[in-house]
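User: Can you help me understand a structure? I only have the sequence.
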Amino acid sequence: MKLRQVDRREREKLFKLLQFHLRELRRTIGKDLEGDEEVFYPDFALYFQEDRDYRAYFLEHEDQIGGFVLINYAPADEFLGRGTGGKILRIAELHLTPLHRGEGYGQFVFENMLSEAERKRMPLCWEWPKADYVMNKLFERFCHWATKNKAVECEHTEFLRDGIEYKRYLLKAP
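Assistant: Let's start by predicting it. Here is the structure, written out as tokens:
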């Protein structure tokens, strides 16, 4: 199992997986689309520019793509409040293919992202629709694991965006 940065030539492959993920997520929160309409993702192009603040990774296992994670190094003020300064490692999207769920792949991704955040001495943050109980359960399990095994603090907050309830998770050094 490994995380591999997505190559520019794999842009279409990532886009198809992202569309599948976004449609699945919209169904989960009760905002399903009709037909084959694309789900607009405004930041997608940023993951293929020279800007190193945006990165896309494929999760690979036995030469199969088991999912992807989109991350960016975002200004902390946007997520933690004005005057915070610095940056956070933000997990923008995480998708595991149906065949790669419930097997520890999500834990693997989060452990890698937490290690990256620790190396860069920044908090790790992600937001997810509250209605996605399965993913929020994974996030809560990971937060519990991280506080117990990595001596980090985990904060949960809830907020409303575009009429949808979200949970924000923040892991940071005490």
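Now, to help you interpret it: The chain has one domain: 2-172. Helices lie at 11-28, 76-80, 105-119, 133-149. Let me know which part you'd like to focus on.
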